[in-house]
Amino acid sequence: SQQGEEDPQALSIQEGENATMNCSYKTSINNLQWYRQNSGRGLVHLILIRSNEREKHSGRLRVTLDTSKKSSSLLITASRAADTASYFCATASYSGAGSYQLTFGKGTKLSVIP
Amino acid sequence: EAGVAQSPRYKIIEKRQSVAFWCNPISGHATLYWYQQILGQGPKLLIQFQNNGVVDDSQLPKDRFSAERLKGVDSTLKIQPAKLEDSAVYLCASSLLRAGQETQYFGPGTRLLVL
User: In whole angstroms, how far apart are CA A3 and each of A71, A92, B2, B23, B102?
Assistant: First the structure.
């Protein structure tokens, strides 16, 4: 089952603008991660934020986490055409016997128009 | 550092046939995962290995899917017999999975089409 739900499902912006994607989830988590997937390629890890963190930055990426609302957001500043991809949030939790599960949402499809 | 390798990249089979996918994780990564990604959806975990032991296979359809990781390195995922709904991209990922090292590194995937 999919735990994270991204919003919006699709987003189209002009190059140079900022892009914001949101993720909501249902159960408690150990951490939340964002991944990018270019058309026809594998997933690339972007950033990880732990349940006791509220905000994290990496280059042009800013992630926030609100565990009380069970939501996270990913902000990409000064977008580029190369940022065109699908973005997935994935919630991570440990469950007995060493199982570490990443549960992905359906993703947000971002198109950056040059 | 070499990434996660998968083969084949593409496979077309007819329903009821069998198919196998291969994965070579990043050197030193003890944990290996297989995911199924249906078009328009996020990846869904099928099975998790820690070294050569299965940690979690609760979402693996065991009547038709099987996976093994001999010697704790390479892994194969098999589907027998395949159904139309198995058409998807099969992703392999690996990680160190220790405190502060939870990032999973994904391979390019195998795109399966069942006709």
Answer: 11, 10, 31, 26, 18
Q: Which helix (H) or strand (E) holds A38?
A: none
Q: Do B42 and A2 touch (CB under 8 A)?
A: yes
Q: Report chain A residues whose CB lies below 8 A from the CB of B91.
A: 42-43
Strand pairing of B110-114 and B10-13? parallel
Farthest CA pair distance, chain B: 44
Maximum alpha-carbon separation in chain A: 48
CA-derived radius of gyration, chain A: 14
| Amino acid at the residue B24 | N
Q: Is B113 on the interface with A (CB under 8 A)?
A: no
CA B91 to chain centre: 5
Out of B56, B91, B109, name the one closest to residue A99 (CB): B56
CA distances from B35 to A20, A104, B70, B85 (A): 27, 10, 19, 15
Per-residue pLDDT tens over the stretch B33-62? 999 999 989 999 999 998 889 998 999 999
Q: List phi, psi (to 5°) of A79.
A: -60, 155
Structure token pair of residue A91:
């919630």
Strand, coil or helix: what is A41? coil
- What tens digit of pLDDT does each residue of A68-93 get? 999 999 999 999 999 999 999 999 98
